[in-house]
């Protein structure tokens, strides 16, 4: 069961979005049919928030309305991504199962009136969710409109209730085997936390001081596994009745409640929701970051952009609109990096309710609007890209990415609040994006031999296996670029003794970190090569490595800041401080140069992004987007699928999908 | 029953304040009598916090102490505004009625040790409050000292408890009639929120994501109505025994838990508490803002400043003192705009308790103090203004003001946190105040024909009736100045489709808003006329309107920013961005000029405020206050009531009440 | 029972730290033995977090492991400070005694998974704690290794539960005698808070508005007394079995849940934990501040630095490392001011658990590290200072310090958030430290005659006895320097009437404060002598005092800002605004000059700190630390204990302990 089947069924890439007809009436449905045709919509996600309609009272189902919508869509040539509506139980569920509501770490029980009012670990909720998936699949498993199953929506709800505590204990028993092992793993000898019976073990609820970090990390792992189990139950219930592929839309970026590598293995098709948090070129970089992560979680296979906004950039306390052309550019940005289409939340902007002001394909203003015109233009463009279906993306550089490492930087009592995993990951990716290079994300324990360069930012937690793997990678000829605060702890959050990082990595890098020395807020230091750094520094000993740049002031004056080590057939670089962005970019460029990594479509001016998709039969397409304010000359004229003609230059904001020769 | 009776009984304007003799002993009472005479006090508010004394245990009343104080005050020539003490139940009430304590949205139950420890919707509390009002009125309804009833104190307490939930359901049934109507109004089709029984409906308690906005708005409306019902019960209990007017002191500004138009209709005399939040000229503008609102809620009738501070400006994390003369200027600022006197909280600064540091007429330092001398000077001044009693204020400009619109901007999920209703209201009023023009506030659905200019800032919610009313106003010859983000939703928070604002208003303005485009934080744009704007912009189409200024950059370049439309006999202006203060002031000045609105006492230099009170018989008085640092020449010498002589100039900080010729 | 016995038993000053061998295995223990010898460790604190090991289930004790460690340490020449492990109940305690968990003011019940999971007022906890102390003392009371008892750890846990409420009522009955007295003290006449039965009285839990300040202050006092009672119970249980001195490590600075004067009287040896919050010279000043407080709480007797960090400065959201030499300088900074040694938390940096990143004597990197080398160097230095044991420190200046005054500035409803007691205390101490003068802290009611100069910063609360005491001090020839906002309330938080401060102090100062006038945020004013001030000003009348500097602007122009009054044989100075640091330092220097207070080792350049310890037999030692960046010449060459030779200059960062001639 592969995504290939999805594009086959659609006859091309997917274009469309979440469709919630239950918010509207028959007259609007008719207009929808017409507008979907005008916009080139071929896929609609239906039923995400329909529990209350589908099961108006416990055990009584009403399918008639859904039958009608599916038939109408099918007749109109729109395929359906059918959702299980389990992300939003109706109010009756609260009253029937008050013990299945989510509870905060301080004991506050949340209630309905919003969405996601459930505890994923509560048996009553799980039974209900599995039951819904089963009845839906039974009824619609072979419906001709249905081409994809959409389990749940954005699994990000947490809980600390007693049901959760019970499930956590089951998970801990399986992980640790014995209380002794748990006590050892969590370091409960400190602060007198030794557990002497399983029933004493709780989720990390409100405490007076720092919580036990091992408990906090295991709770994150448990919750990811518990969520995965909930997903699997629905998936398996669907598979019993349907051969269509099953996915769940993963929430990117900024949420990290799940191990997305795990999810990538359990879905038939990775799909993500992606909303940028800054406008302009930052949104484009953010798009690439999200898309590269999605492709990586999919193991390099094609994936699907399930949700984006037509006119929404979430910028803190406001939502900014998009600039002209961004709907198309962002859509192509995802497709360039492996998405088999571009979908939106949602088709029609809500007239009422919590997301009235979330943008949509048909805005409040109606079809006579810039937004709808750009949507239709984008739909037409996507419609011309059918030949890309099934092609993939290649990268020679990887950034290491591990949920454990992320969670490890979320515990209490760390040396600095500036150890921000997500920010470090984005920074590393951004430097590579600015250099025009396509980047994969990779797990520290996976085979890395295919990459010329591997970057490890803020990998605070690194397992024994990961450390050995990285040493093997360098030894085998790879270039590894490790950044500060990496490898300080093992997978139980136990500190590495005798100097950081873990010994195998020290060997590959030829260094030993004796002391971490966070910089003062606002402090900015200068290295011997004139570069600048903030936030962090380390007292480092070269043990075989060559010093490329050293510290110049204070305790660390004259000691190494940036080192390079030849080890086996490869090289290990270590950067012990957080370089300023431009200095960091210059260093990354140097490493790319040293490793011979080049853009696949070289010769483009700055601000022009190009990514290449490769078909199994050798065909290639360059997706090119000009994010700059100046026209950009292409290195050579090529055939553009969007205009079906040759293109040799792109205006500001312009895009092309070029058939490579 | 009118306020006229109050000033008749007092023989002039009111002067005095809250008097809490239970905090002091007999020796102090004697001094109080003497000092009140020296200060010209003729009205004291008694009993606001006396529940614990009046009813020391449930059902047992002690009136002796109150009898004595009322008699003493009466003997001393001080009339009494007698309060029902229901704003602060005593500790025994907590233990007797734990289910009547207020509960937060997260379930935290508050307790005594402060004040306002009750749920207004709890039957036990309501019974107790009504009972207290009744016994007080029965005993003191005809007491010769009592000239006014003061129900409760500053109704601003909210609650989310189960008692509240029950009352909310009763209110919702009455408003919506059926669950189907409620589901339609709240847009529960979205996020699977459909209610299938009334008992599922809750107040908007803690949820994980955005709360349903319709539920949030209805909860605000319900709570205002519930509060009004609680007020009415007390009022009616009093009326059964007393013919004195009844009021409740409304808390201004910054609190918006009540629909103050509704309260204005149910009290015999509007009274407000007013504390500025910034010093100097800002405090004067704030005073005018509060006073104009109070007069408007009173339907133009005289009203009463029930509380102000003698030496307190609440400036965030500190209280600033007032400057010399401000006690008088602020008092006159209220009287100028229709207050029938000037009262303070409180007579004597508390020696202990939560408000030890709240200023008073007699400060800790005692009568030999600047504060008390200024109080006495102010009392003498107010004493000379008896002839103003019953006169009123006239305005040719109105700013639209609607609680629904305020509440509509308090819900989750709006496009920008900079849509601040209160700030927009103050800004509009301030520009008019700076121009020397007296301003009314008006409800969008009320008859507006009397105004030459009507300003509508941030009226995000506008009902169908309101939109029709505004169109009628313009058509009939009025000039309407609508500012950005107005009329986006109807009174159920349903978005206006086909372009904002509501269709009748679009017609009057000759424009259609296609897209809202919040600006980035710190972003500042320039319009074609050189003015600047921040926070917000809109993609606007002129549909009949003339473009006065247009955008100059980005997506909106060349499109209209400020428009004017001739419609019927009037004009509709639309401003789609938030202008800088000076540009906004210039635009307002242009509109005043265009509509022929002029100060009633023209020719005054900037920084000199003048307001005119009009008697029914044609007499007029100009209250003039020089807030500037320079002496101010008056246009002509007039007789000043304060000095009982002619005045032709005011020193910095000086005031006069001039008999107009 | 005195600390003398401790240094006698140790044969010199103490050096070592918290030792938690239960986190490690036998191999590490062996290395510990060797490294402790290398580092000169002679005292280890054992058992602080060992409840779970000592009492693995309720009532079953396991001493074997502790026996072994004590014997091993003893054999290795390391004495033991044996702790009762009551600061961290094990998880089983939560399940056995859920009613003994701590509860926040909003009702949130905290749980285990961290430390300090108990309510100090819960009988079940108190019984358990007393029992543990008793069994430990019974078993180890005469153990040859044990030289000191360490009750609990950092008593800073608060609680608002029903057990606390019950204990609070008992305390209130004892303090106030009757409900009438309590009502009078708390000013319950205001806001209708009168209590009519004891069961109505609660801890200050969540309320809607300002809490009653008297209740808040009494709750702080109660909690300090309750904590002291808990300490005493353990101490007495220990004394029944052991003649070793008993202490509890007090948490400095920034915590103020305890009246440390009271604790100073109940411990056999004052001991403190001290962690600076800023690097560099600020850390040195902070060290002096903490050490002077500790010595003062000890009544001038020797005391002990129980905890410091080797490489940790807590700077908000990060921990900064120390600079080279600071481990020694900070240790000497404490010893200079009376500490009988220098101990650390902890011996070996944790490999896991909540404080993995808290620095230690043996860091993660191991003994081959800068940190361990500096530790060993410091141990060697401390080892050479045996002759200082028992010597004391003399001061001619005192800063007044009162928990009541601190707590008085923590209540709701004060005129300004900038009335920060702790900051004011530090500022006063810092100005004296910068001037090279050794400072005591003193209680306002204690005999002050021995001091030439007494400084009173932010003593908002001043009891009648305190006011009389200060008047007596001035009258008797002292110089008293009182700063703004002092003496506004008495010990019941009742405002002083007729002008602040309390009358006896007004007499001594020859002034009367009529009005407080907080300055606006960011406002900075100029006084007539050119000095500047922020945050606060006062309207002051000179009543006998001479004006030294006056205000220059606004309402206060021309009125006194700084005054001096000759009263009896002394002088009272009053400063009514918060001077800028440099102006404040200049004024303090002027006062030191006027009172003839000089450094004990004069002639040192700025940045060089010197403190003198005095033996009973007249011997003296100057502990000198150069915090500056330049070499510092000493006034004369003296014999340095650290190098056992003459020293005439100190390099940057250098230290010496000079035998005075």
Automatic annotation (TrEMBL), chains A, B, C:
Binding, substrate: 115, 153
Query: Beta-galactosidase C-terminal domain spans which residues?
Result: 607-659
What keywords tag this UniProt record? Glycosidase, Hydrolase, Metal-binding, Zinc
At the top level, the lineage of the source is: Bacteria
This enzyme catalyses:
Hydrolysis of terminal non-reducing beta-D-galactose residues in beta-D-galactosides
Domain Glycoside hydrolase family 42 N-terminal as annotated: residue spans: 18-382
Q: Beta-galactosidase trimerisation domain spans which residues? A: 395-597
Where is Zn(2+) bound in this sequence? Answer: 119, 159, 161
Question: Do you know which InterPro entries this protein is assigned to?
Answer: Beta_galactosidase_C, Beta_galactosidase_Trimer, Class_I_gatase-like, GH, Glyco_hydro_42, Glyco_hydro_42_N, Glyco_hydro_b
Q: What is the name of the protein in this document?
A: Beta-galactosidase
* GO CC annotations, alphabetized: beta-galactosidase complex
* Family named by the database record: Belongs to the glycosyl hydrolase 42 family.
GO terms (BP aspect): galactose metabolic process
Q: What class of enzyme is it?
A: hydrolase
| Keyword Nucleus in annotation | no
GO molecular function list: beta-galactosidase activity; metal ion binding
EC numbers for this chain:
3.2.1.23
